[in-house]
């Protein structure tokens, strides 16, 4: 006999229930992305502005709310933890207490943010006492983390139950991200930023304020390298330089040692400092275990003689042991030498975008934040001063007419405020202030005292207005405040940096090779070795060169070395710089990396063109810029020698115009400019005088209605102008056929435009020894020898250079590269062999 089901599956238990069907895979993907972003933004990564994770920020602010400042008595850590949990951080109490403990450990923090009283753990790995036994308050330097927070200097968010507001970021009047460092593991990414010396970091910040074009070498004159609270010795500078230049690097940290003679012809190694984040007890145990297992020879005894005066690990050697050999084995096999992998990943701006940051980028972000703090603080102080001055104006009026004011108040029934306002022209605030005063105080108003206060307020208001109108004054105030913090809290460097013989620089570790650099319209960039592309004859159908997103297409492609500088010019006229190897390498069909992860481009700013150069020195070279509307400008290349991470202005353009191309010249070149509708102009570059970075430029070519510039090149004698059209036609025309004219004219015919050819998409000046790379809107890339393209006159239609696989496809970009020695033999007239994905093989 079967049992009756306990419930009917068809029964609707909740009349208002709504069942939404969702495929499992998309639902899991979306849920995991939301979880990952929550961990990245709300738990594991620090903010570049205050260097804190949310739990640390909430601990400091909750203690500040409870007046647990450095000049107040200690309070039980349990109280602090409970306040943080109840107000802002609804997670486990153990995680909050662990975070609070770390802020109070002198071996974890370079500058402790919490002052702990009791057992907060040790470098031996001893756990801290329970939070019911320990006490805590804010450290003195934490006053600077929270200074001015009550003056509307930061943005606020509601807490988890929307009963309070919590700061999105702390004012952090010193650069805490660098000073105390940070480490954390998020989903798919991790950060590991070492601590630094406060004096050095502030000195570098002040130098950037004084010289916005400061280079990495300039900054490293101040920031020598990380400065760990456990001291130790950093071996070499290449890892430091790599980390400061790219955001990633590896440091080798050694313990500090000395040899001591004892007994009769006996030597011992004494360790007085160990590497950062090494557990002393586990270090000694590891050494002892290796001695017992015969993996370390020559050691007779290991003792820990550390006391309140400092660390002292004694390693006694056998009589016949070579001290240096034993020491080298210890460095190799134990944590007396460790590697610290720097990965300077932090959240940038209010959108909390995780980015790998260089030293200059971190300093720039911090200084911009501090300037905003000063401006917002000044606006707040100005508002309060104006409100007080306004109120004093009413009190001064009352003082001048004290008898009448008293009479009006005494003779009014319930309309004293209105009577005062009508009689003396006061507003509601002023009249209410008079009414709120006791009669005795009103009679005893000291006019001189009021006038002095009013005069001081007027001076303050004038000072505040001056600050808000003078960016230079804001920077000066910031420098003064940073110097004051450095003088008050700064100390000497703890970690020594030793030079290493035959040290290898980061660039020496990167093989130099020629690569194709590709940029898409949506802002994806990649670097691919040229060897991945093989040549085809003209008329071929190409190979898949890049996988683009829907409605995305390639806009710029060129070849350069991994050791070349890549200059990125944007449509707004700004220029950025990176080394070739700093562009992530991707496969031939990969879409690449979004350029916002490489450059600090602003919202809505788009990279328009790229050029490459081996060096940027004062050697008489120029950058010749051409815009879509035909404006040209010649800029001395050395003006871009000291580029900031956030770019500098290279060209100021009229509204609606945009930068098309940039060419490097030596002052002796002829410039050829070509347009979409087949016109061209050729003139001497010296017709355009050298200009500064903020100049707009002059007219290069006069355009007919609807026409625009598509390219420009240096027209060297003996070479040919290679023109390519949207529908895959092209031709070579001798440079000599383009007569020299004055700039600013309509120009001469460059291409016979027909429906069959389509308009011109771009030009290059060639000598016939190059290979041509053509990229279509669909992402198809073909490589063909330039010499295979027929020579023809200016007013001709050319020949077919590329056929399209997809109807409606068109050429959108072209580039030149060196000749491929192993050319393929297939032609475009015969059917190609296809792979399973439809691309050529």
Comma- or semicolon-separated keywords:
four-stranded antiparallel sheet; Gyrase A, domain 2; 41 strands; Topoisomerase II, domain 5; Topoisomerase, domain 3; alpha+beta; four-stranded mixed sheet; 4 domains; 841 residues
Structure description:
This protein is of the alpha+beta class and 841 residues long. It folds into 4 domains: 119 residues, Topoisomerase II, domain 5 (Alpha-Beta Complex), CATH 3.90.199.10; 80 residues, 2-Layer Sandwich (Gyrase A, domain 2); 118 residues, Topoisomerase, domain 3 (Orthogonal Bundle), CATH 1.10.268; 309 residues, Neuraminidase. The strands form 12 sheets. A 4-stranded mixed beta sheet has the order 14-9-8-17. Strand 30 and strand 31 form a beta hairpin. Helix 2 crosses helix 3.
Number of domains: 4
What is the approximate shape?
A: globular
In percent, how helical is the residue content?
A: 25-40%
Q: Please state the structural category.
A: alpha+beta
Low-confidence stretches: 822-841
CATH fold-level name of the largest domain: Neuraminidase
CATH C-level class of the largest domain is: Mainly Beta
What is the fourth-level CATH superfamily of the largest domain?
DNA gyrase/topoisomerase IV, subunit A, C-terminal
Question: What is the count of β-strands?
Answer: 41
Report mean pLDDT, rounded to a whole number.
85
Q: Main sheet: which strands, in order across?
A: 14-9-8-17
Name given to the CATH architecture of the largest domain: 6 Propeller
- CA radius of gyration is 35 Å
Largest sheet composition: 4 strands, mixed
- In whole angstroms, how far apart are the ends? 69 Å
Which range does the strand content fall in?
15-25%
């Amino acid at each position: 006999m079967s049992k009756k089901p306990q419930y009917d599956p068809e029964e609707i238990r909740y009349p208002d229930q709504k069942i939404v069907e969702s495929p499992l895979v998309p639902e899991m993907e979306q849920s995991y992305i939301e979880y990952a972003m929550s961990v990245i933004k709300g738990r594991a990564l620090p903010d570049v502005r205050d260097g804190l994770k949310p739990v640390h920020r909430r601990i400091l602010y909750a203690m500040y709310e409870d007046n647990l400042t450095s000049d107040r008595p200690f309070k039980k850590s349990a109280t602090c933890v409970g306040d943080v949990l109840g107000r802002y951080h609804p997670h486990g109490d153990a995680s909050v207490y662990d975070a609070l403990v770390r802020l109070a450990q002198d071996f974890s923090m370079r500058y402790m943010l919490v002052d702990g009283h009791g057992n907060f753990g040790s470098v031996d790995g001893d756990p801290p006492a329970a939070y019911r036994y320990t006490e805590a308050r804010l450290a003195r330097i934490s006053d600077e983390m929270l200074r001015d927070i009550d003056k509307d200097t930061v943005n606020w968010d509601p807490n988890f139950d929307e009963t309070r507001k919590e700061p999105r970021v702390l004012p952090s009047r010193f650069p805490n991200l660098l000073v105390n460092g940070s480490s954390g593991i998020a989903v798919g990414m991790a950060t590991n930023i070492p601590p630094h010396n406060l004096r050095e970091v502030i000195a570098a910040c002040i130098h950037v304020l004084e010289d916005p074009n400061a280079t990495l070498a300039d900054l490293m004159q101040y920031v020598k390298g990380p400065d760990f609270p456990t001291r130790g010795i950093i071996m070499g500078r290449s890892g430091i330089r790599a980390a400061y230049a790219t955001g990633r690097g590896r440091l080798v940290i050694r313990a500090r040692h000395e040899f001591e003679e004892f007994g009769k012809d006996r030597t011992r190694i004494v360790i007085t400092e160990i590497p950062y984040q090494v557990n002393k007890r586990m270090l000694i145990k590891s050494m002892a275990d290796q001695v017992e297992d015969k993996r370390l020879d020559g050691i007779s005894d290991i003792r820990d003689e550390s006391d309140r005066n400092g660390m002292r690990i004694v390693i006694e050697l056998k009589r016949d042991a070579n001290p240096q050999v034993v020491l080298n084995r210890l460095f190799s096999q134990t944590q007396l030498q460790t590697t610290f992998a720097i990965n300077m990943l932090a959240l940038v701006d209010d959108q909390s975008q995780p980015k790998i940051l260089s030293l200059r980028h971190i300093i720039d972000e911090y200084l911009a934040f501090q300037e905003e703090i000063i401006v917002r603080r000044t606006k707040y102080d100005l508002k309060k001063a104006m409100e007080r001055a306004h109120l004093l104006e009413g009190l001064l009026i009352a003082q001048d007419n004290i008898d009448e004011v008293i009479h009006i108040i005494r003779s009014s029934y319930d309309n004293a405020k209105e009577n005062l306002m009508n009689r003396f022209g006061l507003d509601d605030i002023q009249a209410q202030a008079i009414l709120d005063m006791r009669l005795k105080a009103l009679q005893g108003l000291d006019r001189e005292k009021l006038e002095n206060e009013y005069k001081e307020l007027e001076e303050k208001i004038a000072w505040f207005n001056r600050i808000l109108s003078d960016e230079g004054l804001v920077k000066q105030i910031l420098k003064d405040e940073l110097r004051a913090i450095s003088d008050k809290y700064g100390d000497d460097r703890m970690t020594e940096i030793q030079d290493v013989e035959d040290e290898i620089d980061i660039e020496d570790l990167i093989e130099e090779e020629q690569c194709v650099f590709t940029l898409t319209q949506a802002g994806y960039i990649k670097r691919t070795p040229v060897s991945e592309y093989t040549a085809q004859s003209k008329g071929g159908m190409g190979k898949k060169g890049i996988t683009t997103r829907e409605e995305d297409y390639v806009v710029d492609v060129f070849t350069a070395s991994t050791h070349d500088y890549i200059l990125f010019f944007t449509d707004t006229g700004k220029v950025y710089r990176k080394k070739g190897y700093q562009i992530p390498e991707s496969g031939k069909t990969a879409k690449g990396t979004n350029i916002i992860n490489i450059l600090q481009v602003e919202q809505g700013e788009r990279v328009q063109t790229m050029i490459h150069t081996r060096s940027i020195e004062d050697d008489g070279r120029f950058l010749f810029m051409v815009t879509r509307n035909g404006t040209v400008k010649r800029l001395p290349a050395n003006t871009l020698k000291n580029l900031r991470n956030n770019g500098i202005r290279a060209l100021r353009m009229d509204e609606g115009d945009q930068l098309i191309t940039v060419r490097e010249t030596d002052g002796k070149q002829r410039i050829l400019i070509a347009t979409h509708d087949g016109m061209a102009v050729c003139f001497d570059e010296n017709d355009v005088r050298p200009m500064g970075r903020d100049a707009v430029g002059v007219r290069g070519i006069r355009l007919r209605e609807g026409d625009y510039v598509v390219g420009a090149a240096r027209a060297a004698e003996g070479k040919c102008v290679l023109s390519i059209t949207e529908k895959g036609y092209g031709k070579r025309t001798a440079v000599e056929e383009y007569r020299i004219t004055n700039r600013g004219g309509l120009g001469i015919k460059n291409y016979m435009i027909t429906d069959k050819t389509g308009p011109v998409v771009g030009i290059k000046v060639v000598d016939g020894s190059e290979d041509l790379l053509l990229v279509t809107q669909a992402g198809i890339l073909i490589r063909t020898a330039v010499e295979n393209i027929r020579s023809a006159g200016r007013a001709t239609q050319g020949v077919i250079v590329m056929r399209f696989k997809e109807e409606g496809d068109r050429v959108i970009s072209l580039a030149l590269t060196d000749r491929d020695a192993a050319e393929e033999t297939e032609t475009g007239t015969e059917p190609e062999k296809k792979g399973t994905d439809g691309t050529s093989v």
